[in-house]
Target: Proline/glycine betaine ABC transporter permease
Amino acid sequence: MNQLFPKLPLDEWIEVIVDGLDKHLGFLFDFISTVIGGTVDLFNAILTGLPFWVVIILFTLLAYRAGRWTMALFTFIGLLLIQNLGYWEHSMETLALVLTAALISVVVGIPVGIWCAKNESVQKVVTPLLDFMQTMPAFVYLIPAIFFFGLGKVPGVIASVIFAMPPTIRLTNLGIRQVPADLIEASDAFGSTYWQKLTKVQLPIAKTTMMAGINQSIMLALSMVVIASMIGAKGLGADVYRAVTQINIGQGFEAGLAIVIMAILLDRITQGVGKRKNA
Model:
């Protein structure tokens, strides 16, 4: 096909940038890999180290605390079914990956969202980046993650963080911007400092919106962790991937059902926590 202009060597430019990052910042990537790998191992050790019935009771109580007794009953039956089907250990591995990705998304995303809400210039720069992160096909994130961190759980978490972080940033920014101006003026009139105004007025009022962003980040992290099984991340995603490659419908349905139970559980609990704290 004829072109009016020569093709831009964008692929070559990207490879040069990636090679340069790997050459000059390799120590940083090693440090990040150690921290993330250690966090995943810690969550996994806690979740798999405890007897399954203890974990089920703890999550049931958490669901009851966050929502209604019907949610607690669903949590109890759902986790019991996962254990009965033989997917308990893999479910806990998946949960460890999701919790790590969600923790990083919150720790990084909330401060960035606050920064965007306080500075218009920062928002103008960050918003296109978030658009790029959310529209780029999920599988593309696996390529640089593999290059910098190899195969396994760490690149899976990194790809999940990139894919899942935008909702936390966007809704934190939106929640703070939606705080009524008269409340801000009243806090200024009482001589509140910047930190007092943020922690005592803006964040509490924006909490429901922020929790919605965190909820979406957790759901996206779960979906990406399943995809990350293609690069060696363990958990339920590996079972689904194996069932697809072997055309094992029964195993695929069981693993998929376990993922659905985990997704509903995490979704309802985070929603309940947001509503309860806001009340």
In short: Residues 240 and 253 are 8 Å apart (CA to CA). The chain has a mean pLDDT of 84. The radius of gyration is 21 Å.
